Input
Amino acid sequence: MPEEKSAKGELSRRQFIRASGAAVAASTVAGTLISANTKADAAPTVPAAIGAVDVSLKVNGKAHTLSLQPRVTLLDALRERLQITGPKRICDRGNCGGCTVMKDGKPIYACMMLAVDAHQSEILTVEGMGTPERMSVIQEKFVEHDGLMCGFCTPGFVTSVHAVLQKNPSATMDEIRRGCAGNICRCGTFNRVFEAAVAAARSGRGA
Ligand code: FES
Ligand code: FES
Output
């Protein structure tokens, strides 16, 4: 049987493999125990983020400070951390408008902005515009005009219409269409969306 240790005291190949196997087994057991403990102990399901920074956001009038990795988008911060799920993740690449929110009074795609870049901003989502019991005029008109089918694009449209009417409360159909040019409805409910938006503009009640 060959010597397992060389004269210089170096590990033989056999010793190395044996030692590595033991280490892997130990780390697997430890990993299982750690994850079991983590599952049992930790209330939040989100693991501690490496390199996280504090991000302050005021969302729908409420102040939040979140510990987030710099790579987290505003959309993920809203949906995954604050459970504000009105803004939808559809394309996640700035093509559809489903994630539109108001940031400091202007409409933006939340999927295209890092949360750190929204630090200390005021965010308004569709949840902050009204409630089922007390809808905004735009929300009301969307219901009256049946401005949705699956409804997935609806929060984005409501927010874009809100942005248009905030700027010009008596916006015309053309102005509303231009303001919603970045929103896509895959169900093809455009006509009803625009009818609802024009009705909101004609109501004289603003956004
Ligand atoms: S999800 Fe943001 S633009 Fe489509
Ligand atoms: S209502 Fe379905 S995508 Fe617009």
